[in-house]
Each structure stands twice: as structure tokens, then as C-alpha cells.
From TrEMBL:
<dbReference type="InterPro" id="IPR001296">
    <property type="entry name" value="Glyco_trans_1"/>
</dbReference>
<feature type="domain" description="Glycosyltransferase subfamily 4-like N-terminal">
    <location>
        <begin position="111"/>
        <end position="153"/>
    </location>
</feature>
<dbReference type="Pfam" id="PF00534">
    <property type="entry name" value="Glycos_transf_1"/>
</dbReference>
<feature type="domain" description="Glycosyl transferase family 1">
    <location>
        <begin position="166"/>
        <end position="312"/>
    </location>
</feature>
<protein>
    <submittedName>
        <fullName>Glycosyl transferases group 1</fullName>
    </submittedName>
</protein>
<dbReference type="GO" id="GO:0016757">
    <property type="term" value="F:glycosyltransferase activity"/>
</dbReference>
<keyword id="KW-0808">Transferase</keyword>
<dbReference type="InterPro" id="IPR028098">
    <property type="entry name" value="Glyco_trans_4-like_N"/>
</dbReference>
<keyword id="KW-0328">Glycosyltransferase</keyword>
<dbReference type="Pfam" id="PF13439">
    <property type="entry name" value="Glyco_transf_4"/>
</dbReference>
Amino acid sequence: MIEAVLPGDVDDPAAPSGGNVYDRRVCARLDVRETAIPGTWPRPDAHARAELADTLAAFPDDTTVLLDGLVACGVPEIVVPEAGRLRLAVLVHLALADETGLEPSLAAELDRKEREVLRAASAVIATSPAAARQLERHHGLGKVHVVTPGVDPAPLARGTDGVSRLLCVASVTPRKGHDLLVEALAAVDDLSWHCVCVGPLRDTVHTERIRELISHHGLGDRVELTGPLTGKPLDEAYATADLFVLPSRAETYGMVVTEALARGIPVLASAVPDALGDGGLLVPPGALTSELRRWLTDGEHRDDLRAKARRRRAELSTWDETARAMNEVLATLRA
């Protein structure tokens, strides 16, 4: 039996995230026993720390344990002492210090703690080739395994008018770049468009900043912050989208990009080379304006991006393939 230790909010519909979706899809396909531990990971309080310590201590020697990196990487004093007797595989969705907006001293502390945990683990797993290479270089690791996310099959999006309805699916945090998107949209406010931004609004300070920016540019009736959507409402948001936009400053993979591509939606994005492939336009963060204007004014360009999205759609892997790849990694620890 494989033990999986996950964040406590893994199934919280108010807190959807790529990491949570990945954990849920993969664990549902593996022979694992899950333990979800609530806490403000990667900086948990004393109660969460004690629950994690007790959980790991209760596992018999030589147990294979799949640890979500958000839970594991900030508490080496709990995880590392167990590494000598447990077969620990740490799944890194995002390097802790890569979260945008951290104070430099906190980023350095989280980076140090993550390095200590990953060097002690029996296996380290990243969700993209680029993320694996970065972890190997930055933390001085040996081989980091790559298990890329799958995607659920989906029907082709019908869109709205083929041009003007833009969709962004991302938590409203500094790393996701909603401020960059609003500034770019303000620069094309002479054209017809409406942008729907779907995602949790838990960072209330940053969310208020984005609302103020929208108001400052007079875009209150054109940029919509819906909060988190799941199930049919999220499916409908994708189904009516003409263009998917993700302005992130940093990503390890970008699962929402493949969710858009699975529906044949053209994509304009930053920081997601592995997810996007040749399926859309990859631009530097903050360089959206000219490409948005081109999308909104050039029909031949739109046709080209739609064709690219549909070709990439045919190449996407499934969650069953992801689970098989994860099982192969974990099997090396049990051998």
C-alpha cells in the first residue's frame, strides 16, 4: 500500500488549484491510502505540524509515501528524520520560493528548507521537463522524475462570436499576472471584447488591487472576476471562450492551458512552454498587448491559432497515462 499525504484543501471547491486537481486525478487512479492534513502550508501552525509528524511516524518502516511538496518542503525538521526509514517521494508542483510577492528573506528561508527536504527524499517528481531541470540545477539534485499532468477529454468549445470573449482561469494572486492582463486590456479598449477571469479570490489584498485597477481603467463592465467555478459552470466558461489568456509570471506546467487546448480554444500565455507546446502563442510576461490587438483584428491570424490549438488537442495525454507514469516512479522505490 502506498501512502499519500496531501494538503487538507485537496477537495475544497472553494480552493481549486492545479496542484489539487493533479493530486486528486492521480490518487484516484493509484492504489493509495490518502491522508489530507489541513494547514497553512508551507508555513503550518503547531497543530498541523504535529499532525504531519504523527502521520509520518505511524507509517511502518519501508512504507512508500507520496508527499505533496506544498506539505513536505517547508518542514524539513519533520520530514528529513523520517527519510531514513520511509521511502519518500516528494511531488513538487511549484518551487516554494517561486511564489510571487514573497519577501526576499522568506523566499530564501523556504528555498533552504525545500533543498533540505528534496535532497533527503528517495525520489523527487516534477510536473514538467523545465521544472525538473530547474530543480536539478538549483538544488543540486540527481535525477528528478517528470510526470506531466493529463487532461480530461472535452468537446470542442463553441465560442461566442469567434473573437471577443476572452477567458482566464487562475487564482487571483501576484504570480498569475492579472494586473498585467488588465493593463494589456486597457491598451486595447478601443476594440470589442469581454474578459471573464475565473479563480479563487483568497488573496484579498491583491484582489482589491486588481479591482481598483479595473476601475481605474474604466473596465468594470468588461472584466469580470467570477471567483472559483467548478463542474458545469466551469465547463460553460470554457465552452463560450473564443481565446484563452494566461498572463502568469511563473508556472511549472499550467494545467489550465491544456484544459483549454482540450476544447480546441486558442491560447495566448506566458511561462507555460511545456503545456502549450506548439498549440498557441507563448509571450513574455507583460507582453500581451500587441498579441491581443492582433487576435482582435486579424482574422487570418485567428484561424491559424485555432488550427494550432486543434493540432495540439490531438497530442494531449490522459490522466490514465499520468497515473501509469507515477506508478512506475513509485515502483522503483518498492523494488
